[in-house]
């Protein structure tokens, strides 16, 4: 068996790099650690941290195809973030103009959660600890 330590990062391709960088940093609270423009690929790459831990590589590429979300397609389903209070976090997102689904209850764990989307429709989840 392979001996993995942890998830190192998640890579996200944005259709509008500046808009997605603002969403992840200004709305969700990630910190931009570094940023580089890769001229040969006409692509931006930003490294984002959450609470000091490197978490997301945010990319741009010219004209990326749209992500298939509905109906759900094979591949990464969503990205989930843990929160202490899903109602408070949802209220903060709503005040910033980010639509959220109604809060649901995980039938297996009894925990509360909700879904919302990033600017490109990537499903994101808030999961109450």
């Amino acid at each position: 068996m392979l001996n993995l330590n942890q998830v190192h990062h998640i890579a996200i391709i944005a259709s509008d790099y500046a808009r997605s960088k603002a969403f992840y940093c200004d709305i969700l609270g990630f910190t931009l650690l570094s940023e580089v423009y890769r001229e040969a690929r006409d692509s931006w790459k930003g490294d984002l941290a959450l609470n000091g831990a490197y978490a997301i590589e945010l990319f741009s590429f010219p004209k990326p195809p749209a992500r298939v979300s509905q109906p759900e397609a094979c591949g990464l389903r969503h990205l989930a973030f843990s929160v202490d209070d899903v109602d408070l976090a949802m209220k903060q997102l709503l005040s910033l103009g980010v639509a959220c689904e109604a809060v649901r209850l995980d039938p297996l764990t009894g925990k509360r959660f909700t879904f919302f989307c990033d600017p490109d429709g990537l499903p994101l989840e808030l999961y109450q600890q």
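The first helix runs from residue 17 to 27. The domain at 1-64 is CATH 3.10.180.10 (2,3-Dihydroxybiphenyl 1,2-Dioxygenase; domain 1).
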